[in-house]
Fold each of these.
Amino acid sequence: MDKISHMTDPRTLYLDLISKVIVNTIYGDPNDNEWLDRVYDPELRQEGRDWPQVAHSMAGIRRIENTRELCERAILEGIPGDFIETGVWRGGTCILMRAVLEAHGDPGRHVWCCNSFEGLPPPDPELYPVDAGDVYHTYKELAISLEQVQANFACYGLLDERTRFVKGFFRDTLHKLDAECFSLIRLDGDMYELTIQALEALHPKLSSGGFVIIDDYGAVPSCARAVDDFRAREGITAPMEVIDWTGVWWRNA
C-alpha cells in the first residue's frame, strides 16, 4: 500500500515527469555530439554522456535525480537560501530546481541561472595555466541565448519572477549577486577558471548544511583540479559523494 501511495503522489508524479522531459527520455532525440553516433542511445542519455539535439539538459537522469533529491532535502530540512546554477546551457537543471519549488509550494526561494549565454570564454593561461589549450569556447552548440533559455522555462509554465537570470562571464557577475545565502549551488562550468571563480564567489554564501554539486568533476580534469585546489585551500574535508561517472557533491559543514 505504501508503495502504491508513493507512486501516485501528485508531487512525485509531477517531478518524475519533469525530469524525464528535461533529458528527453520520453521521445529520445538523437545525440548531436560529433564524436558519437547521431542516434538516441538510452544508456548514454541515462548517464549524461551525449549532447541531445532537443532535450533541455545533457546531465542525464542520474545527475538530474541528484539535483532534485538535494533540492528537496534543502526544503524539507529547512536549510535557508536560494538555489543557483553556474553554466546552464538550455536551462534544464534550473527548470527542475524551479519545478521543485513549485511542487513543494515553497514561496520564499529563488532560482539563479548564471551564464554568459554566449558560450564559454577563451582560456586565460596567464591567470589559469591549467586551462591552456582549452577549446570549449569553439563549440557554438554551447552558446544558447538568454531568450531561448527563458522560452524553455515558459514551455513548462515556470517562467516568472522567482527565477533570476544573470548574463555575463562569471568574473564579472558572481561576486555582485544580490543574494543573501544559498542552500544549494550547482557548478557546470567545465573550465578551471569558471569553476574556481564560482566556488570563490558562492561558497562563502552557502548555508550550513547546504549542498555543492559539481557536474564536470570526472569528465574534465581542469574542473577537478579547481575543485581540489579550492577544497585544499579552504580546508574543506567533507567527503565528496559520487553521483555517476562525472558528477560529485558534498555537504557544507
Amino acid sequence: MSSAPLHASRAAVRLGQRCALDLCTSWPAVEAEHTNAMVMDLFNERREITSLAVIDNERPIGLINRDIFLSQMSKPYHREVYDRKSCIAFMDKEPLVVDAGLSIEELTRRTVEVGEKALADGFIVTREGRFAGLGLGVQLMRIVADLQAEKNRQIMHSIEYASVIQRAMLRSSREALAVMEQDATLVWQPRDVVGGDFYHFAQYEDGWFGALADCTGHGVPGAFMTMIASSSLTQALQQRGPRDPSALLAAVNASVKAMLGQSGDLSESNDGLDIACFWVDRREHTLTYAGARLALQVLPPDETTAVTLAPLRIGLGYADSPVDQHWPATTLTLQPGSLLFATTDGLIDQIGGPRRTSFGKRRALTRLAESRHLPTAEFCRQLSDDLATWQGDELRRDDLTFFCIKVASLTC
C-alpha cells in the first residue's frame, strides 16, 4: 500500500483563494493488484478512513467506499469468494477526481453535478495526474458554509455602511424640518438595514417645501431607488424651484425613466416611486400639493376631520407611466395651527389585528383627530404604539415613514 506525501504550496490560501488542496487529506491508497482481504485489514486497522483510493502507477483509477465494501464482504460466502481477488471488484470506477489547484467554487459545482455519491464517498485529489490524497464531502460542505458566512458578513458590513450613507443623505432634510416648524416630527423606519422610503424638506425665503416618497422595493434594491429618485428630485428643485409641485413630479418622472431606461418595449425593469410633494407659501398663506399615489392630509385647527388631498393613481418613473404625464396640483388656504400628515403604505398596509387585516388609513386619521391638541411628537409616538399593538407577532411588511407637522406661523 502507498501513501502520497502532501507537498503543495499554500500561496493560494494566503491570498484567500481556497482550492481543493485545502481539503486534501493524505490517507493511504491501495494498488490495483491488492486483494480485498488487504482492504478489509486496512479498514479494520484505520476506522477513521471512510474511503480508499485505488491507484495504478500513482494514478487514481477508482474509489472504495467503506460502508459499501463492508456491506458486500459481510454477505454469505463473499469472504471466501472475494478475499483473494483484486480490490477493483468493489470500487467505483468513476469517482470524482480533481486537481489540487481547483477552486472551491469549481469543486462545489463539480460535486453538485456528480451528486450525492461525491458527498458520501468524497473525491480524489491529484497533482499532475498523480494521487495526492482524498477530500471528504463533509469538509467541502463545511468550508462552503464558512465561505458563505464570510461573504454574508462582508455583505452585511457593506449594507450597514450603506445605511450610514442613506441616513447622511436624509440628515439635511431632518435639520431643515426642525428649522421650518418647531412642532414637527418624522418617523423613518426601514424594514431592513436600508430602505426604499425617503423624504425631502427645504426652507426658502418665502416658504418651505416638503416631499415624502416610497420607492419600489425595500432593502438594498429600495435603497438604490432612493438614491436615483432623491437625486432626480434635488436636480428638479435646483432647475425649477420648489413652488410648482406638479412640474417637479413631471421632471422626476422623466428623469427616473431616463436613468432606468424605462421607455418603450425594451425596458428591462419596471421600477418607480409614489410621492406626496407640497409647497407652503408663507406670503400667500397657501399650500400647493401634487401627488402620485401618496395623499396628504390637512387637519385645520378647529376641525375634527382631516381634508384629504388625493393623489393621481399613477406612479412616477414606471415603464407604463407616460414620459409626458401631468400630475395636477391642488392649492388651498392654510390656517396657522393646521396639521399636515402623510404616510407611506408601510403604515396603512401592515397586517395585524384579530382578523389579520391591514391597519388602514382610518385608524391613523382617527388618532390624528384625537391627538390634534398634543405635540406632534406625542401623536407620532401614539400612532407608532397603535401600529405595534396592531402588528403583534406579524412580520413587518414594508418600510415605514410618516410625518406630522403643525403649521405654527405663516409669516415670512
Amino acid sequence: MGSPWLRELDKYDVVQLSLTSLSGAVRHVTLPSHKLKTILQSSGTVRFGSSGIPADSLLYDLKSSVGDAEVDLTSLRPLPWLCGDGRTAGGAMCHVSPASPRAAAIEQVARLKDEFGLTIRSAFEAEYMIFEQDETTPFNNVLIEPYGRSDNMSGREATLLDTCHSLEGAGLPVETFMTEFAAAQFELTFRPEEGVASADTIMVMKDGVKSNLRRNGMMPTYMACPLESGHANGFHLNHSLWTADGANAFIDVTDPINLSELARHWIAGLVHHAPALTALLCPTVNCYRRLADVLCPQSATWGEENRRAFLRLKTERKNVYLENRLPSSASNPYLDLAATLAAGMDGLARKLTCPVQIDPEAPPIHKSIDAAVSALEQDEVLTQALGEDLVKGFINISKKAMKARDMGHSSHQFHRSVYFHAL
C-alpha cells in the first residue's frame, strides 16, 4: 500500500470499510483511521469474520463475505452522513478472494482495455421505494402512481433534497432526482463514470440514502417488489464504449441509426447471453415478480428508443449508448457491470451477428429463477470470464433461495423479512 494513499487516511477520524457479497448485501467494519493505517502497514488486510452467519443464509456466503479483505484506498471518499458531531468519516471498498464481485468487475474492465483498447462509461438509473417508519405505509401515504408529481414530496422536500446534497458531498455525480411510476417510488440518476466507478456510486448511494432517510423516520428499500401490487424497482444500466483517443466506439455517422459495427457485435453478445444474464441481474425469487410487469423486457430484443426492449438504443444528441433494462434493484451492481462486460466482449471477440430490432426469434427472458439459474450453469463463457468460484458461489445462494421457496417460504412477507433492509 503506497504511502500517498495511506496519508489520505489522515483526513478522517474514522473509516467505514464496505465488503459487497455476491448477493449484493454489504458488510461494514468501521475503524479509527489511525488504527486502520497501522493494520494496513502491518498485514495489508482487514478481517471480516464469519461469526453469526448461518449456513442457510440467503445473503452471506463464505466465499465473498468472509475472510481477509484487501482495502482499496483509491476508493476512499468522505461519507458525510456517518458523523454529526464534528468528526470526519470516510469510506473505502474492500474485496476478498476467491469470489469478489467488485474484483470481477475490475478484471472485466481491465480485460476490455487490454484486449480491445476500450473503456466503458456507464451510469445506473436507481429506482427504490420509501416507506414510513412502520415499513408498510407508502411515503406520505400516497397510494396513486405519482410519476413526476412534485406534490408527492409535500412537506418532505427539505429532507429529500438534503439527502441528495449529502450524496454530492460524498462525491457522487448526482444528475436527477424524481418520483417514479409506482406508489412510494423514486429514482436517482447519475452522470456516466469510467470503469467500476458507477457500481461504487450505487453502493455508496444505497448507504447514504438509507442513513439520511432513516434518521428522519423514513424507510427506503431496494428489494425489487416490496409492494404486493404495482410496478417494481429496476436498476437500468446505461453504458457505452470509448476509444483511447476519446471517441464513442458505438457511433458510426454513416449508419442510418448512427450505430457502429462494433456496437452491433456488442449487442449480439448481450442478446446471446441474455438467458444466463437474467440469473445474475435478477438474483432473488422476488425479482421474478418484477419480470412479469409489462414495463420489463419479455425477450432479449433490442430496439432504438424502445422501452419494452431488453436493450434500448439511445441516440440523444448523437450520444449513442445502450440502456440494459434487465437489472433489478435487488441486483449486485458489480455483477451487473461484470456480466454485461463479459457478454458484450464475447460478441466482440467472436464478431457475433447482430439480430434485427425486436427480433421475434430472440432468446427468452426467463420468468423463473429456476430457468435462469439453469441457463447460467450452462453458460461456459460467462463462467470462465467471471470465475468458476464466483459463479458457483452465486448459484449456491440462488439454490438456497429456491430451496426455501420449495419448503414453503414463498410469501411476500418472507421476502420482505429477508431483503427489505438488507439490499
Amino acid sequence: MSTSTEKSYPTAWVESAFDNHTENEVYTEVPGVATNSSSIHSLLWPSLFTACIIAANVLTLVAFGVEKRLRTYNNYFIINLSIIDLLVGLNLVLTVVHTHVGYYPLNQALCKILGGIGKAIICASNFVVVIICADRHRATYDPINHFMTRSKRKAVYLNFLAWLGALAFWMMYITAWEFIDDFDNRRHCVRKYSRIPGASMLNSLVIFYLPFVFISVLYLRIFVKIRKTLGGKSVQKKFSANDDHSVSNSNVVSDFPNTSDIDIDVESVGQKRLEGHSPEKETEHGNSVINKKPIMKRESAAETRKATRTLLFIVLSFVITWLPQSINLLIYSIDPVLLVPGLPRPGRLFFGWLTYGNSLLNPISYAVSQPLLRATVKNVLLCRCTKISSVKKTVIS
C-alpha cells in the first residue's frame, strides 16, 4: 500500500473509466474505510459486459449497413452514437485487462494520450444526445423550415461538431495538462484532475451536468409543445390518426399508410415531391388567373413519432445510467468522507460501471423504438439475405 503523505482520493471509482480500481493502494487517506476486493473485479463479468456492448453496437451498425431504408436524416445521429458506443466498448477492453493483471499494462505516455481520447469518446456520446434534442426541438417548433433545410450532410456536420468539441476539451484537459506538468500517473494511470477537488467537479460538470441541463430543458419544451398541439390527447392516438388519414386532399402533406412497422426516408421523398411542384402555378379561369401557393412540406407523422420515441429512450438511458454516479462524484469532490464510509466499495464500483451501461442500453433503445431496425437485426442474426418487406409508396393525387 502506498505510503505517500500527499492528499489523494480513492480514484478507483472517481475515474469514470475505472482504470485504477484493481489495487487497494489507490485508496489512501480515507480513515476507517476498508478496501477489501470485490467479486466484481473478477475477469468474467467485466468481460461479458464489454462483449455485450461491442456485439450490440456492431449488430446495429451492420443493420444500418445492409438496410438502406434505415439511413435517414434522423438515424445519422443514431449511427454516430453507435460508432461512439462501439469505441467505448473497445476502450473497455484495456480496462478489463487492467483489472485482470492488477496494473495499467501500457506506459505513462500512452496512459496520458489514451486517457484523453477515452474521455472524449464518452463525452462525445453525451454531446450527441444534446444535438439530437436540439434537432428535435427545432423540428417541433419550426417543422417546415427544419424539414426544408435538413440534409444528411448537415447531420454529418453536426455529428462532427460533437466529436470536435469533446476531443478539443479533453485532449487539453487531460493529455496536454499531464504532459506539460509531467504528471506521474503511477502504475494505475491515475488522472491528475482526480487529485484536485475543483478540477474533479469540472469533469462532472462537462461530462454530465451541462448536457443534463440542456437535455432536460429541450425535452421538457418538446413535451409541452406536443401536449399543447394535441390538446392533451394521446400522442400515440393522434399520430395513428394522422397515419390513417386520407390522401385525397392534395394541399395536405400525405403520410405513409400503416408506417408503424416501416421506416422511410421522407427527406428524399419530400425532395422529389418538391421537384414536382413549381413555386407558383397559374391556372386560367376565363379572364382570371389564380395563383397557387407552394405546398409546405414537413416530416411525416410516422417519422415524427419514431424520432420522438427514439429520443425518449435515449434520454431515459442517459439519465438512468449517469445520474447516480454523477451525484456520487459531486459529493465525493466536496469531501470523500461524506460518501465513502456509507457506500460500500462494490456499490461504488457498480455505479461507476453503470455509466458504461449507457453504451449497452442505447442500441437496445434503437431496436425497441424502430421496428425496421429490429427486424433487420433479427435477419442479420438469422443470416437471412432476403429483404425484410417492401414499402408501399403513397400515390399523390
